[in-house]
Amino acid sequence: MSQLNLNRPDDLQRDCVDDFFEDFRDAYEQCESTLLELEQHPQQPDLLHGIFRVVHTIKGNLGFIGLFSLIPLLQSLEDVLDDIRKGHMAYDSALCDVIQLTLDRTRQWVEASIHDSAKPMTTTALQQICQRLTGLTSVDERSRTVRIRQVLGLLEPNHPQALAIKDEVPALVTSTVGEPVSEGPKSASAVDACRRLLQYYRIRMDADLEFFIQLLPALEERHPNWQGRAARQLFLALEINRLAGGKVDQLQLVVAVMLHDIGMAFLPLQMLDAQGRADPAQLSVWQRHVEMGASLVASSPRWQDAAAMIWQHHENQDGSGFPHQLAGEDISDGARLLRIVDEFDLLTSQQQAQETNNRQLIKALLDISQGAGSKFDPFWVSMLNEAVKLHKQHFQR
Question: Which of 9, 54, 226, 291 could form a disulfide with 220 if both were Cys (CB 3.0 to 4.6 A apart)?
């Protein structure tokens, strides 16, 4: 083949295009039959090697004719196949469909580029597919299934296993870190977002949870930095806990996250801005928000564990926190988790105009990682890093 620049119609060379499609058709037919055979005999490595070679050849031909924008897509697919070859991931019917549909969309994209017609998907969708295919083996099985179903949804929305990206994390939680959720009225956003999160994590709503959720709009109106805070923290806490194998009782964690700073709502606004640090004389007053919040929640026998998390969520791993200078295992897992979630949200919501969100995100993770063993429990720090890595797009501008 000769070099082809598909961005300039006057450079199109029909013989080059014909050669590409002839090779592509042969490769596609070979791949299609091999995929079906592989589904019947997944333990035959020669079949998988054959598919890998086909995808690698198509990727090379795309570069040869100048369609560099599609190369990351084929590279992501090649990486998936390589992981399967190495035994890091099992081949199944969903991955079979991903491979076939990816090749279909590749062919359609090339045709659209030649004829200057509408592409089969947007550039954003193309990038999202690559992001979700990359690192499939670095996430747990449940997250991997979600990612694969999302890729199918991007490639073929009507696919029976398709899952829209918005379903991975409820839409009201995916706003820019540190900014109010802009979808719908402010009073409804916190309520709707938290309801969606509970539904997503299969937590049954009851009268207590509904009452606590209804308190959130008033709490978030108390201070500008609190807009969207409950949903952000609830998502992060539940996701970290999921990655940790559910070490903390979900219901107790939900209540603790939503209400851990309810005592702060009764403090003067200037004290909320200072967070008790500007004036040492006011520090003891500010620290009392922990006792106030825990006492309110502890009035219900059902929520004693949540109250303990609230009471302890400013304790540090090395015993330097407050109110009782507890350390290590004397602090509940829920409180140690909440300590990190609260700090991460504080660091990422105080955005500076000169900083990009990505830079601030990295800085927040570094700050917390440096505090592992002193302020924070090292195990929960590692879980935070996993959660942010898995859902990085939800913490970036």
Answer: 226
